[in-house]
Design goal:
The structure holds two protein chains of two kinds. By secondary structure, chain A is of the alpha/beta class. Chain A is built from twelve helices and 13 strands. In chain A, helix 1 crosses helix 2 and helix 8 packs across helix 9. Chain A is about 35% helix and about 20% strand. Chain B has two domains: about 45 residues, no CATH class; about 80 residues, OB fold (Dihydrolipoamide Acetyltransferase, E2P). Chain B starts with 6 loop residues before the first strand and ends with a strand. Chains A and B meet through strand 5, helix 4 and strand 6 of A and strand 1, strand 5, strand 6 and strand 7 of B. Strand 6 of chain A pairs antiparallel with strand 5 of chain B.
Chain lengths: ~375, ~140
């Protein structure tokens, strides 16, 4: 235990919706301001901001300005999506640990439903870069890349469509008790099987819920956290592994998580069995399955049964995505997983509180790129 | 309003590959020094930094994975729905992944592990040609 241990001391979020009618700038500033107020910290103590911005967001300098700050000493704008969230948290944590910063905000703000929809393109297009090879074949959306991973995964490990369905059903069940979640009506296996194909093997209910909104967390040192309003939540450790474009990854049966999980467990001396709950980045049901298996919550091919037998919910082994995840709460690009983890570890999750939650894994990303962070009640 | 499917926008590293398709040649980059193949096209070999040449390949390969698209992510594919896209591993370089449409087989008959051959076809909306994969066994 050290005075400079990084602690999450504040959380903030906007309303999540299908059409915010607001700018990403406005929502980012709101969520950051709420995080600072939640902590009970002076805004003038914030000297760093980290954000990530695939497709649609507002940069760190705009948000600093909107928060009334004259400037910041640690401006980080990461050109990535939901794969980089835990690394963004790690960058903030390291800046606090080294003494570079007093307090840092990490946020994501996007209008991914009403504005720029990831993986939806219109008009006559010429596409360069990575997607010049796939785009002429009508193959250029994240949902397509990871459906491709999913089919291969099913072939190698026996994962079934029903296994994917179990993840959608249990995740939705959790969202029923979350008044911030956008989708709260329970679904059955029949509903799942009847939902329309998007990119077979993905049906509609396999895909994250495109949404508008913003979410932020505030990180400072253990020492500074003592004088603040909320019980601090420690950023224990983080590990990211990033390959490049999904087509360039050679083994669809083992995702980034096969690389990022072992160092994280080894350094912390923890295992999946020690987690009281987990927020697994669920851009697709398949991602939850493959990442959980790589982190060792169950054996390869076993996640469907883990969900089916009740191990992934209250009274089981480890509650997975108690807020309803990106599938049913909202696709705030994974930032909302961190909000939920902090609520749970503070004991503030109300009806959906996981009993005696002390330590949790939060993951980011899928396919070739992503990471995981461990949070603990301080 | 109807649109054409997306056109490729080649880079300085990939223009030669697209031009060879226009000549009806399916080729892949290969290092003159370490002899490794690579996809996508780069300036130098990613393994040793060596010089690359475009070397024609057989076009024979294996389906590594595939999806059936019921929703087009971009304009220009409505008439093809539902259409299949596969990741194919070429026989000469089985670790590499090449995306392309599957032709000549019913969607429900596509399987991982099937052998394919490559055909080069006109791409609607411009003067580019693209490789597509035909199931042979």
């Amino acid at each position: 235990m050290a005075a400079n241990d990084p602690m999450v001391v504040g959380i903030g979020r906007s309303h999540y919706s299908r059409n915010s009618g607001r700018t990403t700038w406005g929502m980012a500033v709101e969520s950051c301001r709420l995080a600072v107020e939640d902590a009970g910290m002076a805004m003038s103590d914030v000297d760093g901001i980290v954000e990530f911005n695939t497709a649609d967001s507002t940069g760190s300098l705009n948000v600093a300005y909107g928060l009334g700050l004259p400037g910041i000493r640690y401006p980080v704008d990461l050109q990535n999506g939901g794969n980089i969230v835990t690394f963004a948290v790690a960058l903030a944590a390291m800046a606090v640990q080294t003494g570079k910063c007093k307090a840092i905000l990490v946020y994501r703000s996007l209008n991914s439903r009403s504005g720029k929809r990831l993986g939806t393109f219109t008009g006559d297009l010429a596409i360069g870069g990575d997607d010049q090879y796939g785009a002429p074949h009508g193959y250029l959306a994240p949902g397509q890349w990871f459906a491709m991973y999913c089919r291969r995964y099913m072939h190698e490990f026996g994962t079934t469509n029903e296994d994917l369905g179990e993840v959608a059903i249990v995740t939705r069940q959790h969202a029923v008790k979350n008044d911030w979640a956008m989708m709260r009506d329970p679904i059955t296996m029949a509903d799942y099987m009847a939902s329309r194909w998007i990119y077979d093997p993905f049906r509609l209910y396999d895909c994250a819920l495109e949404a508008d909104g913003a979410c932020a967390i505030l990180i400072t040192s253990r020492e500074r956290a003592q004088d603040l309003r909320q019980a601090p939540v420690q950023v224990v450790d983080e590990e990211t592994f990033m390959g490049r474009h999904p087509d360039s990854w050679s083994d669809f049966g083992h995702l980034f998580s096969a690389h990022s999980a072992p160092p994280l467990w080894q350094r912390t001396g923890l295992t999946a069995r020690d987690m009281d709950f987990a927020c697994i980045y669920d851009c697709f049901t398949f991602t939850t399955i493959a990442v959980m298996e790589d982190y060792g919550f169950c054996e390869k091919g076993g996640a469907g049964e883990y969900f089916r037998s009740g191990k992934a919910t209250y009274g089981g082994d480890c509650v997975i995505n108690p807020h309803g995840g990106l599938l049913s709460e909202a696709y705030i690009h994974g930032m909302n997983h961190h909000y939920e983890a902090v609520m749970q570890l503070r004991g503030q999750a109300g009806e959906r509180q996981v009993a005696d939650a002390r330590v949790a894994l939060v993951t980011a990303g899928t396919g070739p790129f992503g990471g995981g962070v461990i949070y603990a009640r301080a | 309003m109807t649109f054409h499917p997306p056109q490729p926008e080649p880079s300085l590293d990939s223009i030669a590959w697209w031009n060879s398709l226009k000549q009806g040649i399916f080729a892949l980059q290969r290092c003159t020094r370490c002899r490794e193949w690579q996809v996508p096209n780069l300036e130098r070999c990613r393994h040793c930094g060596g010089e690359l040449v475009l070397e024609p390949v057989s076009g024979n390969g294996t389906i590594y994975s595939y999806i059936i698209n019921h929703r087009p992510p971009a304009p220009g594919f409505d008439d093809l729905l539902p259409y299949a896209v596969a990741i194919v591993t070429p026989d000469e370089a089985p670790g590499l992944h090449i995306p392309g449409r599957i032709v000549g087989v019913a969607n429900e008959d596509i399987r991982i592990g099937q052998a394919v051959t490559t055909e080069i076809v006109d791409h609607p909306g411009g003067d580019w040609k693209v490789p597509v994969f035909r199931v042979t066994a």
